[in-house]
Amino acid sequence: MPKTLIEELPKIVERGKKEARRILDGLSRRNRITLQTNEMVLPTKATGGYFAQITKELDDKKRFNRMIYGDSLFSIQALLAGDPTTDMSSMRGEIDLIYIDPPFDSKADYRTKITLPSTTVEQKPTVIEQFAYADTWKNGTVSYLEMMVPRLILMRELLSEQGSIYVHIDWHVGHYVKVIMDEIFGKDNFRNEIIWRRAYSHNDGNKFGCIHDTLLFYTKSQDYYFKKVFIPRTEEETSEDYPYIDEKTGRRYKSVSLVIG
Question: Which three-class secondary structure state does DSSP give residue 115?
Answer without folding.
Answer: strand
